[in-house]
């Protein structure tokens, strides 16, 4: 399978409050997705704990080879920073950027593996979001799987890059972080 834009792969941006976490995830996912653009956008511009509009915006630009970008975030305010960055993108670029409703590490790795296989944007998003129930299901005794992809693919995204069911789909209020 090849990416949507002439063989280009979907890129991923990992937005974390910690530069070390984002960089570590690039290293980890890169072990399985060596040909996929994975960008760390962690910490603030001056290296503190927090998020940076500039780092997220630059990360999206770096990850975008034309096939799209999936952004994975660690906490609610990271989601808000990513959404703000999306608001400032040109319409053409914004149309191919999605914010995944997924745990950062598990979703980031699953999305990276899908991108490495050449999956199109919506499939990479679905792969990342399939990790939503992974940690909860591991200890549930139900054999895993659970409702990680409840309701089907979970791949369709709304305008603005947010997936259906995303905690910030219809509001800009923080999601408890």
How would you describe what is shown here?
This protein is of the alpha/beta class and 177 residues long. Helix content is 37%, strand content 11%. It is built from seven helices and four strands; from the N terminus they run βαβαβααβααα. It has a four-stranded parallel beta sheet, with helices on both faces. The N and C termini lie far apart (38 Å). The C terminus is likely disordered.
In short:
37% of the residues lie in helices and 11% in strands.
Break the fold down into its secondary structure elements and pairings.
Elements: E1 11-16, H1 19-30, E2 38-42, H2 53-63, E3 69-73, H3 76-87, H4 91-94, E4 97-99, H5 104-116, H6 121-129, H7 134-138
Parallel strand pairs: 1-2, 1-3, 3-4
Helix pairs in contact: 1-5, 2-3, 5-6
């Amino acid at each position: 399978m090849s990416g949507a834009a002439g063989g280009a792969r979907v890129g991923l941006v990992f937005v974390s409050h910690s530069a070390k976490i984002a960089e570590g995830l690039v290293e980890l996912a890169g072990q399985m997705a060596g040909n996929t653009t994975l960008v760390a956008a962690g910490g603030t511009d001056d290296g503190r704990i927090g998020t940076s509009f500039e780092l997220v915006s630059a990360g999206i630009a770096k990850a975008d080879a034309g096939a799209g970008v999936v952004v994975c975030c660690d906490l609610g305010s990271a989601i808000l920073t990513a959404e703000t960055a999306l608001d400032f993108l040109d319409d053409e670029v914004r149309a191919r950027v999605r914010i995944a409703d997924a745990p950062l590490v598990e979703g980031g790795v699953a999305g990276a593996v899908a991108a490495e296989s050449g999956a199109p944007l919506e499939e990479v998003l679905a792969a990342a979001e399939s990790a939503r129930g992974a940690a909860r299901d591991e200890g549930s005794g139900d054999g895993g799987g659970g409702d990680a992809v409840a309701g089907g693919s979970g791949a369709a995204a709304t305008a603005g890059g947010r997936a259906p069911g995303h905690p910030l789909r219809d509001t800009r209020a923080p999601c408890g972080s």
